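Worked example

This section walks through a single chain of length 432. The input is the sequence exactly as stored; nothing has been trimmed or padded.
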Amino acid sequence: MHDVYIQCIVASMGDETHPQAQDIVPLGRVAGYCLAILSFAAAVIHFAVAAGHFQQYWLFSLSMLVIAWLQTIWAVVVIVRPSRPLLRAGAVLNAATLAGYLITRTTGYAIGTAPREAGLSAFGAVFCAAFEAVVVAGCAWLLTARAEHYVRHQQLIAVPAATAAMTAVVLGVALATAVRSAPGASAASAASAAGPGARAAAGSMPGMRMPAAAAESIRLANDTPAGDISMPDASMQMMTGMRMASSAPCTATPTVAQQRAAVGFVDASWAGARKYHSLAAARAAGYRPITPTGADVVHYLNRAYYRAALDGGPVLNTADPQSLVYANTPRGAVLVAAMYITSRGGPTPQPGGCLTQWHVHTNLCLTSVLDVVGAVGPGEAPCPPGSVNRVTPAMIHVWFVPIPGGPTAIDAPDQQVVQAAEQVAAPANGTA
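Given that input, the structure is written out below as tokens.
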């Protein structure tokens, strides 16, 4: 590319030794320097991602390291020895990396068992993608420009210097706020390590703190066999691989309207799901198991109903809940809950305020059709082939059996769910 630049200068000026030839440089060279700076900034961000995730899955970290080194090498070579093949390589590398970013952000898939939420926060990830997009566009422009343009020689220093300064500011903020470790370093997990009280704070949503007496006094009758609606237990210990959808505590006193709405939500869920007490009716309606059948507790998903929510339909569709939960008891499967699932980053309505809270799971191995085929964690094997570990969309249960905490309890161990299911009447079902 240097030869091309020189030939263009000679052709336009007539003589490279002409005094004016010493005062101009091709605009393409200036652009190349700026693209090198942006490529190096993207590489720094990828290095940061790899450093934070090597313990999660080596292939994920390795891919980030390979991309980072290629972007670094490209940035150096495009300054020292630019060429058209190098520009093509830069465009392809950054376009492929950008495509991978867009795929993981829109579908939720990541490489191997690396959690989807692991890595950069939105600020850092978006700017990394923006750097790569500009590199792709810049390479495409340099490759397709029909005629060279020239600028004063001073611009060869001034423009890249300005680009470097602005990029350094953005990069500094991105690295200061964006490097987010795997779930163990999240606020919820840090609280989990601190103890039950801190877990409760990390596992709730925002609001004015409710006095303990006020929380204990909330007992709302409803139509389900699950008992009264009550506030989530402040000392609740979250199960492994589970956390609240929001890291901020939800301790606001539910208003009278919210308490009424919670009762209405629970009663409507019970009325809408009663037709699925029959497991055969649920299957006929399109519900299919997404967790292993024959287990103590089995989750069923209606993909058509879930797709309707993804397409903008109501998330809390009590007539057609996205998911049903069954417990296998000695007398057959018993419907124990309706479960509502939002889209990734989608709405999490709380009709009952802090009486209705959402949670996510961080340790599940999911297939492309949302089947749960395993879990990851200390002492666990990696996800089976064809599945990945990623944070689930937020979900909320309405329970129809008397588990501790009542109909809007966050969750319960399978043993408690089965024991509660044995206490309610149910039609004769086979095994879920």
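What to look for: Residues 2-181 form one domain.
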